[in-house]
Amino acid sequence: SVVAVVSFLLLASTSLLMGQEAAWLDPAGNKGPLVIAGGGELPAEILERFVKLAGGEKALLIFIPTASERADKQLSRDEEKAKLLEPWAKLGVAGVHVLHTRSREKANTAAFVAPLREATGVWFEGGQQSRLADAYLGTEVERELYALSDRGGVIGGTSAGAAILSRVMIAGGNPEPRVATGLDVLPGSIVDQHFLARGRKPRLITAISKNPGLVGLGVDEGTALIVTGRKLEVLGKSSVTIVLAPAEQQNRPVRDIVLKSGSTHDYTMLRRAALARTQPAFPAKELPPCKLESGSLVIVGGGGMPSEITAKFIELAGGPEAPIVVFPTANPPVADEGKSERREGSFFERAGAKHVTILPQRTRQEVESPEFEEAMKNAKGVWFGGGRQWRFIDCYAGTKAEKLIHDVLARGGVIGGSSAGATIQGDFLVRGSVLGNEEMMAEGYERGLAFLPGSAIDQHFSQRKRFADMTSVMKRYPQLLGIGIDEATAVVVQGDSAQIMGRGSAHFYDYRTRAAAANSGDSGDVPLADAPDYIAVKAGEKFNLVKREKISGQ
């Protein structure tokens, strides 16, 4: 029965959410684009964008009116059928085919789904979303829709035709939603429509609160959310409201983000944020000591690489013969990737390193390949290049590669990196936002690769006047050790000792005593507000990471 199918699918999607998906999420997003419209009168630009995504004048469209109770009557009369398809015909596409049945048996036949195999776009018309679920959920139609998306075809819909696109589907009710099962066209979401026009924010908040880990997407009338890969874009007259469930264990309230027409966002970041809200609080109140059990770290603040730092990294790896692996993956792929990759690790070769391997692999399949594993198992040194640190998370976090990288440290090797390659080494990841590098605490990208436990690391520090930025992190998470590193400067970590090398200073922030004093109401010996809230350690000096003090007698 339909109910049995629905129950099974809901259980399957829930177990997926609680299992593998919490550990790893494909950052690329959907292969095929989506046009999710909120009902009402749609501006021409929305249908035009849908047709463009479907191939323009070469587009072969499927129009599904099954959500409408009038569909059977409309399709039985040629005049009404023509009127139904008129808006699409006017857009000059190669063809439009109507697909409609109330029979699940018919929806499972090869003849019925044949047009879907040729299509470049599918549009669900409005009405009641449960009619779509009753007819097509768990049938060949559903399977062919995913196949179309996987080959790059566009799927869209308006009103009920938007609501059907999320597996957890709001079927009705307000403010208490009636939740059923829809299609898993946009994984990780709950879609609502006619959002502001019908005052549906309370029901989306309720639905998302009962399904934490999902992203609520409330699309208003006359508006569409365009999804291409991981990018979200709003088109039309009004706005899209994004809702994330509250997380009591993290002291996070409901989060809502309003995207007006023309605005963009990153769906992978939102999905990661939603999933993070289902996890224990991070960072934990009690953190492990900020030290290494084995191996070494070379953490460079960007803006130049003095030869003494390069020489130190090669020495810690075991000398010129030691195998060194370089990750250029914080930068986006470029057409001539080979050339840019060689440039990323060339300073090691100029300094005498004889076995430098560039690993440009990015997808999970690539970083879990035998070739990647072989290179990592031999490596004595690993270097993370500059760029944007969230790309490192997309490449390695939650994959087998993450353990292989940590294994280099465990067997006494060295891990290093500059700029983004410095920040990624921290436990807490600052400036992790996909949307820009200004946000210090970006939900969804707050976990670093944690080579240095209990730390948060920033770079280009004095040069870009980032002192107040680190202070904001310390006030929120006083249990962390904040480390701000100047350009052309390295913090070399062995055990609990940090040696400063290069041209500038490193700045260490310890807010534990301040937090304790604030909690007890006793200011005691806490520094005055206008005094520096960090300890500056110059090149040539050392700092004890566990005691959080300069090492004297140098």
Task: Describe the protein in words.
It contains 21 helices and 28 strands. With 554 residues, the protein is α/β, with parallel strands linked by helices. The chain has two domains: 2-10 and 33-276, Class I glutamine amidotransferase (GATase) domain (Rossmann fold, 3-Layer(aba) Sandwich); 296-550, Rossmann fold. The strands form five sheets. A nine-stranded mixed beta sheet has the order 17-16-18-19-15-23-24-27-28, with helices on both faces. Strand 21, helix 20 and strand 22 (481-485) form a beta-alpha-beta unit. Helix 7 (110-118) packs parallel to helix 9. The longest helix has 17 residues, at 2-18. The chain is elongated. The N and C termini lie far apart (77 Å). Mean pLDDT is 93; it is low at 1-22.
Which stretches are low in confidence, meaning pLDDT under 50 for 5 or more residues running? Answer: 1-22
CATH level-3 fold name of the largest domain: Rossmann fold
Largest sheet: 9 strands, mixed
Count of discrete alpha- or pi-helical segments spanning 4 or more residues:
21
Secondary structure class reads alpha/beta
Total E-strand runs: 28
- In whole angstroms, the N-to-C terminal distance is 77 Å
Kindly estimate the percentage of residues that lie in beta strands according to DSSP. Answer: 15-25%
C-alpha-based Rg, rounded: 27 Å
- The CATH architecture of the largest domain: 3-Layer(aba) Sandwich
Query: Overall mean pLDDT score?
Result: 93
Spatial strand order of the main sheet: 17-16-18-19-15-23-24-27-28
Helix content: 25-40%
Shape assignment: elongated
Q: What name goes with the CATH superfamily of the largest domain?
A: Class I glutamine amidotransferase (GATase) domain
Please indicate the count of domains.
2
- Please write the CATH class name of the largest domain: Alpha Beta
